[in-house]
Amino acid sequence: MNCASLSLKMSPGTRKFCRNTNKKLIAHNRMCSNLHTSGDCMDPKFLTKVHLFHNLPLADLEKLAAQMTKLEIPAGTTLFSEGDIGDYFYVVVEGELEVIKAVGTPNERLIAVRKQGEFIGELSLINPAGLRMASVSTSIGAKVWQLSRKDFESVIHQNPLLAYEMVRELSKRLTNAHESTIADLQEKNQELTKAYHDLKEAQEQIIIKERLEKELQVAKEIQKSILPEIIPALDEILFGAYLQPARAVGGDFFDIFPLGESTYGLMIGDVADKGVPSSLVMAQTHALIYAEACRQPDPEQVLHRVNQHILEINRSGLFVTAIYGVVDIKEKTFCFARAGHEIPLAMLDNQQPQLIQYHQGQPLGLFEEPVFDVQKIKLLPGSSLLLYTDGLLDVRSEGGDQFGIQRLMEAYASTSRLEPQAACDDLWQQLAAFQGNADQYDDVTIIAIGAKA
């Protein structure tokens, strides 16, 4: 039995066609250079294990085996690519071949694996266009027997039964391919359905987020309207203020408002939380202090009345630290009550800042009969007071250091020659420089009171 030798060279006409119209064949030829052929003869008995040929007489199998050539395919090799011109039919002897559609695209998928005794490449030999319908490669290496187009057509013509088996096998494969396609479509449909529901939920979340952002903006505008638009400008006593919330809305508040011809009410407070809940309590507390301040002159009584109101109407459990006092322009005094708030700093006669002497003071909203720190400070010419919330002291640098009271004293001392509003602005700039790119975790409020020298 003589074995036909394999020639991987194409005819001159085919090469000319490839150079002009189909560069894919060049890559195919380069791939083929990695394949190894052998003169070993095909054992006709092996062909009986191939379902396509199992009904052929032994004489026909011997003739068919004589026309086939052995081909060794190294691991990681592409036998042919989708769209290549098909010239050979293959029977797998050892290893396995992977059939892949749309290689290198988002739709790439493995559609079949051909193992020992199975064949591949028949469609391009039957198809009038002669193009490969998919790419075939091996990841573990394989040995195949190949049959040229010419010999394949000769075998089909000489064996009508073989043509019948071929049609039956193709029908089986087409059925499997159809079922696989349907399964893929069902899977993609499920993925699309899930993606649609995810998109719908995301859209709903976006709508909710936009609504919340709009509500937050409204809350921000309402909170802004509560705070004074203009700081009173007086001849003998000057005021300054600065507020920087940590979020869109916050729990810090302040106000400076006229009570009489020569008296002004001043409040600063901090609700023990941040965000929308604290902003609501902040608005309540601000309104209560303002209302009570207009009814009675005593700051301590004002805070006691406010405390009772908060206990009655506030169910959130949030408490408030605050200072409320009365600035008397004629007397140049600041009489105030402190409800658990940060202790003010005083700078007298251009001396170094220091904490004022203080007594116990308890927050609003916790006790039925809280104790407040009540004091009266004389505003001497050239002196100033600094009131602030704890958010100022709690600011941290990028390295995690806390701003703290000592840095505040040093920063406050550097503003001794500035008027109160300029001093507040300068303090914030120093605070922002210290903070750098670190997050702000709490609201910051500053009020300065100064007596002209």
Task: Describe, in plain words, how this protein is organized in 3D.
The chain contains twelve helices and 19 strands. The strands form four sheets. A five-stranded antiparallel beta sheet has the order 1-2-9-4-7. Strands 10-19-18-15-16 form a five-stranded antiparallel beta sheet. A five-stranded antiparallel beta sheet has the order 11-12-13-14-17, covered by helices on one side. It has helices at residues 12-21, 24-32, 44-47, 58-67, 122-126, 149-158, 160-226, 275-293, 299-313, 390-394, 404-413, 420-435, and strands at 36-38, 69-73, 77-80, 88-95, 97-101, 109-114, 119-120, 135-138, 142-148, 237-244, 252-258, 263-271, 320-328, 333-339, 345-347, 354-355, 373-378, 384-388, 444-451. The N and C termini lie far apart (123 Å). It has 453 residues and is an alpha+beta fold. Helix content is 40%, strand content 24%. The protein has two domains: 12-158, Jelly Rolls (Sandwich), CATH 2.60.120.10; 227-451, 4-Layer Sandwich (Phosphatase 2c, domain 1), CATH 3.60.40.10. α8 packs across α9 (299-313).
Architecture (CATH level 2) name of the largest domain: 4-Layer Sandwich
Radius of gyration over alpha carbons? 45 Å
Query: Taking all residues together, what is the mean pLDDT?
Result: 85
Distance between the termini: 123 Å
Number of strands: 19
Strands side by side in the biggest sheet? 1-2-9-4-7
Number of helices: 12
Q: Could you give me the name of the CATH homologous superfamily of the largest domain?
A: PPM-type phosphatase domain
Tell me the strand percentage band.
Answer: 15-25%
Which descriptor suits the 3D outline? rod-shaped
How would a crystallographer describe the biggest sheet? 5 strands, antiparallel
- Helix content class: 25-40%
CATH class of the largest domain: Alpha Beta
Helix/sheet category: alpha+beta
CATH topology of the largest domain: Phosphatase 2c, domain 1
Q: Give start-end ranges of low-pLDDT stretches.
A: 1-32
Number of self-contained structural domains: 2
